[in-house]
Task: structure prediction
Amino acid sequence: MANYVPSNLVKAQARLLSAFQNSELRYREPATFREFLRQTSIMVPDHVALRGREDRAISAYFKNRTQRALGSGRSHNHTGPKGDSTEMPITWTTYNDEFSISMKQGDNNMFGYEEQLDNELENVIGNFAEGFESAAVSHLFTNRSGVNIATVEGAFDATDDTFDITEATNGDRALQITKSVMDINKYRGQYTVFCDTVSFNKFQFQANQGTGNTANLTFQFGGATYVHSPDLNALAAGLSTPRTKGFWIAVPVGTIAVLPWIPIQNRQGRDFGNEGIYGSLINPVDGLDYASHIWFEGADETANNGYTQDILFQHEISIDLAFENAPLTNANETTLQAFALI
Result:
């Protein structure tokens, strides 16, 4: 049933409290999405004001790396090439969730209007959390690098775009090899490693092998943050050669970002009566401002657990997000390097 009919006041009733209720309302914490947010260090200053409206395009620009072989002498009439820059369009996607509720829907129910509205909003929050986690993981997977120049203690599969490490011989040193591969590809500093469940469990186990253990493996875990991204499980298994022994994507810190945006009317707050109320709310999970739009009309809601002289409220919560990773001019190369155990 819908419309909260099961909790209508037709018999003696009790309500579930604490964990009994929270278990039903649970949702996956968006760890991957949170990492995108954490690394977004004002990638495009004032992108909110610059965009203006949904149909206005924005591009960012970066300076190109010009790589040349060194010469072997000096000249009085030397000449050289000029540098260049590249445009990177910023692409937003609008995400929304909708629900409806009538004014009298809670009058004959153990859950009043306010409690039903709170529940609808809590479900919206959970839906965004899980949806954005999937979107963040999908961005990492879809944009993994198609170029990896490393050839030592593994091999790059250009079909599935993964650097494969043989588990039987080097599985215990997978993260040491990962760091060496990143170094060969000229990435230095801190990394974030987004792991499927198999690799996350293996790495967590290896990281907790203490110095007293004859197979101390903890030396390879410094300088990196490990994020459990369960959505990678199905994506890795769906490659042309399924990777089921462990799959992860290593990302240099500061090379991924997500840019949020909502329309100016929602930021300002505009009330046009039943034609539409524009506002915003802060999502407690990610701290972002979301656009809220409500319109309403008089309605007979007896078929939906309301009453004859009722008001039906239609709610929409939305936000625009642009998932981005640092651009590179080399064809098919990105900073998102995928690895797998085979």
